[in-house]
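Could you please consider the sequence and fold appended to this message?
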Amino acid sequence: MTSLPTRRTATDAGFALVEILITIVIIGILSTVTVFAVRGITDRGEEASCATDSRVLTQAADIYLGERQLDAIPPTGAANDADRFEQTLVDAGILRQVSGLYEMAADGTVSVNGQICT
């Protein structure tokens, strides 16, 4: 007496190796697309932040020069890189503190790690 092989039903079957591999590949593709999309958003956010901070520092410098009517005379800290122009603005009460990220030259250019913000 030989027994016949039992037939599997759809509810008994598990995932095949090929199905699992296809699922992993699809997840990998989706995660790659997501990473590149987020990277672009982050770069645009940093550029917008730099531009905004540049405008704020430029307006603070304009306020400083306008209050003192010193348009032609550079403020303290203009000739020496160690003495930053932001410190002059903080001492005048225009800015709250010196930025740890941005540097402002006496001519009004704002830079981050040596790269000028636009």
About this structure: The radius of gyration is 31 Å.
